[in-house]
Amino acid sequence: MLKFVFLQWPEGVANDLKCGHGQVLVLAAHDFLSHDLFDVMIIDTQLANAFINTAMQTSLETSLGAVARMNQFVNELPQEAEGKIAPSTSWPERGRGEINIQNLTASYSIDPAASSVLKDISLYIKAGEKVAICGRTGSGKSSIISAIFGLLRTTSGTITIDDLDTTSVRASTLRAGIMLLTQDPYFVNGSIRQNLLLHRAPEIADDTIVSALERTGLSVKLGLHKGESSVSDILDNLLVPEDMLTKGEMQLFAITCAILSTSKILILDEPTSGLDAASDQIVQRVLWEH
Predict the structure, then answer these.
(1) Which of 53, 127, 257, 276 has the largest count of CB atoms under 10 Å?
(2) What's the Cα-to-Cα distance from 243 to each of 221, 250, 276, rounded to whole Å?
């Protein structure tokens, strides 16, 4: 099938190619991928403008549709209620972090008539305690996590962290004080150091970072044992997770972030799902030691 490309020439080039008045230069090729020779044709400007106007109109309609959807999202979607209390940046305090859920009933929908995903749930976790919540798919394990992060609409009951009702705390503060690790770790386009310190102040010492990587068995994988480059240079190398880490190692990297994190509460949602036996053992060991 014949394909056409309309060229927008720099100023003066069209004159050099001797395009006549009211005409434009068009390249045509039967197959671009096989690098066939291009045929040069001169066609009428009016026909070219018809093609261009159609393409522009289609693009404009698509863009206007996107703007309309964004406007609807911003102006019509109900916003979550924002708490008024802003605890210190160190909240929950060191040595604390108890979670107390009492008679909680909550729903994902803002509609009061919607069915509840959690019904009359009570759970108390002491500071420093490690608790595993088990159940079949759909039993509400992830919903409890969402409720702690303030992502559900609470119809009755309370969730308190260190005796502070989470609904009264600003959402940004609440979510900054808790670290969540899922089975699909999150990475940013940045260096090894930047990814490790997403939840920690950037001035943390290199020795501390290396120590955390050694605990999860990643120091060798990331080249920190070679001695060919300084530790600082290696940590500042670009991290490309898909090329540098296996799925199990990505999860171990996330566990390393947890070790370095300032968060007093660590929540894991199926952290060993899909891991090999060796990686699973490391995750289990680090969690019980941390």
Answers:
(1) 257
(2) 12, 11, 18
In the chain, the largest separation of any two C-alpha atoms, in whole Å, equals 83
- What is the rounded CA–CA span in Å between residue 200 and residue 76? 36
User: Which H or E element spans position 13?
Assistant: helix 13-16
Cα separation, 199 vs 263, whole angstroms: 8
How deeply is 253 buried, as exposed, middle or buried, from its count of CB atoms within 10 A (0-12, 13-18, 19+)?
buried
The domain made up of 181-289 is a member of CATH 3.40.50.300: yes
Least confident of 79-83, 236-240, 251-255: 79-83
Is 180 within 8 Å of 254 (Cβ atoms)?
no
CA 216/CA 275 separation, integer angstroms: 14
pLDDT recorded at residue 201: 60
Domain ranges of the chain: 3-76, 99-176, 181-289
Q: Which helix H or strand E contains 52, and what residues bound it?
A: helix 45-76
Residue 78: pLDDT over 60: yes
Say whether domain 99-176 belongs to CATH 3.50.30.10.
Answer: no
| Number of other residues whose CB lies within 10 A of the CB of residue 270 | 13
The backbone torsions φ and ψ at residue 206, rounded to the nearest 5 degrees and listed phi first, read -60, -40
Q: What is the pLDDT of residues 198-252, one digit of tens each?
A: 866 657 889 999 999 999 999 988 888 766 678 989 999 999 999 999 888 898 9
Using DSSP's 3-state secondary structure scheme, residue 165 falls into strand
The predicted model scores a pTM of 0.66
